[in-house]
UniProtKB/TrEMBL annotation:
Leader peptide range in chain numbering: none
InterPro entries: Restrct_endonuc_typeI_TRD (IPR000055), Restrct_endonuc_typeI_TRD_sf (IPR044946), Type-I_RS_S_subunit (IPR052021)
Source superkingdom: Bacteria
Family: Belongs to the type-I restriction system S methylase family.
Entry keyword set: DNA-binding, Restriction system
A GO MF label: DNA binding
Organism: Oleiphilus messinensis
Protein name as annotated: Type I restriction-modification
Keyword DNA-binding: yes
A biological process term (GO) from this entry: DNA restriction-modification system
Domain Type I restriction modification DNA specificity, first and last residues per copy: 22-183, 221-384
């Protein structure tokens, strides 16, 4: 932020989240600047699921996305140039609305009482205010709760200039973030393809091939066995279905959300008591070293080898595969399942209407191409090198994306609280069309 000047003079304010502001800025509670209302029940006679000439006005929802639309209405209840603030879910997310609209129940709407830049205040709310919500099963922000929160601001013309500055700069940063996300996506797709080729076609491009007899696998190297997942396992099971007590320490309770590709997120997993672990669980809910864990509910197909570093049990959202290690190495099955072919097949076979599930009876019947143990070891060695390089590139792109996101947040906060002075800022000629590596270096410095 060194390229931006500070204001020449500041004054102290008594606000929990701001200590000083430029001397010519003001402070006020939200209720002094805005009329605060909440969305209500939708009226069926005005509602449509699709936008049309007769139903042109969006109905916004409680979501952390400024484009989250529930439906459309023929009659709007809130004017353009207002702010919506989510009262449930992602509580406190503010969005500037530049057109007439309606709001779903518990979505808060701030309508300005005087001339101001609503976009400036939307930026401020998102960057500066951390709302303390009602303590309940579902966090909720009410009109009464939001009213006393303080905001700081310059005169309206400067508000608009700051908002325009942030629109321009955040668009640049968002473009760079999107490029990094696209790179990460391409690298992950390439990673899956590299795995898939190695575990179904082998390492030798000149090896004689034969038809596997399985349409989705195609040709495979001669000498490789076409088998089924269940035939390589001593058993396939899933974890506990009954509620387990939660404690601050003890054996870990692993759910699908605690498992990523190749990693168990112990830092996020809950624990249960040793007594409950010993008395309430069957052995098939307790993974042993060398077992393969596979997410079967929610986000499907994430897989990891359990190395036994901690005592743990699994919930019903996780499948446990105990392998016949004379046939298949746990690391080989795990990495094979990360490949594009097996991932696509598991998702294709998944049952369920709204929420998909991998059924272990179907998983057990899934075809699998099995090389010898010696060949499995060679494939793992080669993939370790190739994937290590790819993972380093993914990690680097992810780090850049995180730095850009941090930079974006810091820039918004600095601008809307007066830490930087952008009153003399002017958009460059031909602005916001092409962002180069120079922009990336500038944004992350």
């Amino acid at each position: 932020m060194s390229r931006y000047q500070a204001y020449p003079e500041y004054k102290t304010v008594e606000i929990d989240y701001i200590d000083q502001i430029p001397s010519d800025w003001e402070e006020a509670s939200i209720s002094k600047l805005f009329e605060i209302k909440a969305g209500g029940d939708l009226k069926a006679e005005y509602f449509s699921e699709v936008q049309s000439e007769s139903h042109p006005y969006p109905i916004y929802t409680n979501a952390n996305d400024d484009k989250s639309i529930y439906g459309y209405t023929s009659k709007y209840f809130f004017n353009a140039h207002s702010i919506t603030v989510s009262g449930r879910g992602e509580v406190g997310f503010a969005a500037f609305r530049d057109h007439p609209f309606d709001a779903i129940i518990r979505l808060l709407v701030l309508s300005p009482l005087n001339d101001c830049s609503c976009k400036f205040f939307a930026y401020f709310i998102n960057a500066v205010i951390d709302f303390k919500v009602q303590s309940s099963a579902i966090g909720q922000l009410s009109t009464q709760q939001i009213a006393p929160y303080k905001v700081v601001f310059p005169q309206a013309s400067i508000q608009k200039k700051i908002a325009n500055f942030l629109d321009h700069e955040t668009t640049k940063i968002d473009t760079l973030i999107e490029k990094q996300q696209q790179l990460i996506k391409l690298l992950k797709e390439k990673r899956q393809a590299v795995i898939s080729h190695a575990v179904t076609k082998g390492l030798n491009p000149n090896a004689p091939m034969r038809d596997s007899g399985v349409e989705w696998l195609g040709e495979v190297p001669e000498g490789w066995e076409v088998t089924r997942v269940g035939w390589m396992c001593e058993f396939i099971s899933y974890g506990f279905t009954n509620p387990m007590p939660s404690t601050s320490e003890g054996p870990y309770m692993l759910t699908a959300t605690d498992i990523e590709f190749g990693r168990i997120k112990y830092e996020e997993a809950r624990c249960t008591s040793q007594e409950a672990f010993n008395t309430l669980l069957s052995p098939k809910s307790k993974p042993e070293k060398g077992d393969v864990l596979l997410t079967k509910d929610g986000t499907l197909g994430r897989v990891v080898v359990f190395h036994g570093e901690y005592e743990a049990c699994i919930s019903q959202s996780v499948a446990l595969l105990r392998l016949d290690k004379m046939k298949v190495l746990p690391e080989f099955l795990s990495i094979a399942f990360m490949g594009a072919d097996y991932q696509s097949k598991m998702i294709f076979d998944a049952g369920g209407t709204t929420i998909k599930h991998i059924y272990i009876s179907i998983l057990a019947k899934m075809n699998f191409i099995l090389p010898s143990l010696e060949e499995q070891k060679k494939i793992l060695e080669v993939l370790s090198i190739k994937l290590g390089k790819m993972d380093a590139l993914i990690e680097q792109a992810d780090k850049v994306s995180s730095l850009l996101t941090e930079r974006r947040s810091a820039l918004i906060s600095a601008a809307v609280t007066g830490k930087i002075d952008v009153r003399d800022w002017q958009p460059p000629e031909g602005a916001a069309t092409n962002y180069s590596s120079d922009s990336l270096q500038e944004a992350t410095s």
